[in-house]
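Pasting as-is:
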Amino acid sequence: MKKFPLWINIIGPIGSGKTTLAKKLAELLGFEYEGEEDEDELDDYYKDPVKNSCWFQFKKLTVRFEKQRQIMSYCSIGKEENGIIQDEGIYEDIVFARAQYEQGYMSEKEYKTYLRMNKALLNCLHEPDVIVFLDATPEQSSERIKARNRSCESNISMDYLRLLYKLYLEEIEKIPKTSLVIKLKYDNFRNADEMAKIIKEEYYSNKNVKKIGY
């Protein structure tokens, strides 16, 4: 069993409730919350994804690598005594890169370059102790996107959400076995508080992949 500080990374599709869950879990455990701020860049991407997807994807990869290294440093020196809850992360970045490529927004050369950089950067990192995959269907994601009513997300299509969901399910199986992966079925919980309490009970499990609420 790992000693504190513990590092938990929350990942999942657009609109799956990652930020809400991450903040609730940080509050419940008394951990530090680490999120991402990129709404201005998201606006630029969604205005013209064909034009902006490549630079946006490389920018996100760079920012997430820097964040991952920062969190690793915090954990190694014990800066955060109890632990860190990370909202989003580098291990879901490839999902969006694959989606850009499959939609034709990134060329084959661009995508292959991205894959080389992604692999090189991941080789410089170690994994979070726990990765929580918030498993929300495209329909659930769409409902949450509409409810939060962000202007930059108004044109997200169901086809795109379905593609992302398919890629998440594929990529989640490739996460290194050194992390405990908790797959949390979104529609079997009433709210983020209930999810957070379940994660608190399960995150020291010795199993590599744990499905909750299926």
